[in-house]
Design a protein that fits this description.
The complex is a heterodimer of chains A (about 80) and B (about 260). Chain A has one domain. Helices cover about 40% and strands about 30% of the residues of chain A. Chain A is built from two helices and four strands; from the N terminus they run ααββββ. Chain A is elongated, with a radius of gyration of 18 Å. The termini of chain A are far apart. Chain B has an eight-stranded mixed sheet, with helices on both faces. The longest helix of chain B is centred in the C-terminal third of the chain and has 15 residues. Chain B has twelve helices and eight strands. In chain B, helix 7 links the parallel strand 6 and strand 7. Chain B is an alpha/beta fold and about 260 residues long. In chain B, helix 1 crosses helix 11. Classes of the chains: A alpha+beta (about 80), B alpha/beta (about 260). Chains A and B meet through helix 1 of A and helix 7 and helix 9 of B. Bound molecules: adenosine-5'-diphosphate and magnesium ion. Magnesium ion (MG) binds next to helix 1 of chain B.
């Protein structure tokens, strides 16, 4: 098959494989908020972007915080 | 103990039934006792493709309802004494999900055969899950076109959640002329895109719908292709049918242009 169509097939399959529903996205966001809130005072919920890249996935997480929580690691 | 192989696909009409029947007949000719079972209750066709529709007395649904024993429903194929068909003709199961008893029915056949090929419905509906649960290996049939490959990828991802011993791809309806000119996907490109191994290639040929399973003419291209596929499946070989043969070089280009113009 010509190159254009090989790329087209790859794009279609990659998009299909990315089957994260809105519900599962919400679950990830909630879990991340809980985990990060132990260390930061979050100003808003994290924003997650998952995109296929070379047969793997690239996951971007953007999050901002009002303040850092002070803590000492238990020795 | 029989190897239980489900023949499945993402898209319908890609050749599951034709492949289940012809692969079954070929394995039988090689001396393997083989049963092809029609688990595509909605769009059952195995009896016709195997040319045994006039011999049906009982079918799968009779077995599942307890009206007969599996061995009473088996039909010996006229193609080979080692080849049996367990047909589905009854409308009884239409629209219902396939009962889980299918698994026990198939297990009951295990000791009598070397191979049980399960002709499965397309897609990933209820019937698919029942058929796959009853199998320990899967063959996914694709044609070398985007829509078929895309749907196959979904089926493959569901199949990976089952603990099957092996999952292979059969590329059906390959036109050598178009593969050579780069107008359809090649088996290598399909392997890369779907991340699964191609275990057989069947060319596009009229003999596939003109002949009953097991009666492909000796010199018909699919006959050779099924021979190779059967030995790949039975013996774990990975020889591939040469779909490009005859379509490369000077005479090949003439043949390609004739094909284009008909
Ligand atoms: N390699 C082939 N060359 C030509 N026709 C084919 C080939 N494979 C299948 N066919 C035809 O395609 C149609 C659909 O095949 P079938 O086996 O019924 O598909 P499925 O069971 O996947 O729905 C049938 O008419 C069959 O004869
Ligand atoms: Mg069919």
């Amino acid at each position: 098959m010509k190159r254009d169509n090989v790329i087209r097939l790859k794009r279609v399959i990659d998009t299909d494989r990315l089957s994260l529903t809105a519900e599962s996205m919400e679950l990830i966001v909630n879990d991340l908020s809980v985990a990060l809130s132990d260390y930061f005072v979050l100003s808003e919920a994290p924003v997650i972007k998952v995109s296929p890249k070379d047969g793997k996935y690239e996951i971007d997480i953007r999050v901002s915080a009002e303040a850092l929580k002070t803590f000492l690691p238990v020795p | 103990m029989a190897r239980k192989i489900v023949i499945t696909s993402g898209k319908g009409g890609v050749g599951k039934t034709a492949i289940a029947a012809n692969l079954g007949a070929r394995l039988a000719k090689n001396g393997k006792r083989t049963c092809a079972l029609d688990a595509d209750f909605g769009l059952n066709n195995l009896d016709v493709v195997a040319g045994v529709e006039n011999l049906v007395v009982y079918d799968v649904s009779d077995c599942l309802e307890g009206k007969c024993r599996a061995k009473q429903a088996l039909i010996q194929s006229p193609a080979d004494k080692n080849f049996y068909v367990l047909p589905s003709v009854n409308a009884f199961l239409k629209g219902k999900t396939v009962p889980d008893e299918l698994g026990s029915l198939i297990s009951g056949l295990e000791t009598s055969f070397d191979f049980v090929l399960i002709d499965c419905p397309a897609g990933v509906g209820g019937g698919f899950h029942t058929a796959v649960s009853a199998a320990d290996e899967a063959l996914v049939v694709v044609t070398p076109h985007i829509s078929s490959l895309r749907d196959a990828d979904k089926v493959l991802s569901v199949l990976r959640s089952y603990s099957l011993k092996s999952v292979g791809i059969i590329v059906n309806r390959v036109r050598g002329d178009l593969a050579v000119t780069g107008d359809v996907f090649t088996p290598e490109q399909i392997e890369t895109a779907l991340k699964a191994e191609v275990v057989g290639i069947i060319p596009e040929d009229d003999s596939m719908f003109l002949c009953n399973a097991g009666f492909l003419p000796y010199d018909a291209p699919p006959n050779k292709a099924f021979k190779i596929l059967a030995s790949n499946v039975a013996e774990g070989k990975r020889k591939m049918y040469d779909y490009a043969s005859g379509y490369t070089g000077f005479f090949g280009s003439i043949r390609r242009s004739i094909k284009r113009n008909i």
